Amino acid sequence: MTDILMAVYNGENYIKEQxxxxxxxxxKDWHLYICDDCSSDNTEEVVKKMDDDxxxxxxxxxxxxxxxxxxxxxxxxxxx
Length: 80
Known about the structure:
Blueprint: E1 2-8, H1 15-23, E2 30-36, H2 43-49, E3 55-59, H3 66-77
């Protein structure tokens, strides 16, 4: 299994294209963790419309920066 981490902020205009790029890869055994850094656009709706069980979406409660969002995602991927 390949874990993929993506941090996003106000990415509604490009997030679907990024996810579709992952889906089109030859490796099919993957899980995508998307950490939304409290976007104020429709990023969440775009991701949820993708309807793929291999995608987990997490939205931070406040904008904290890309590094914080990535670290948050790493903590979701790695076991305790």
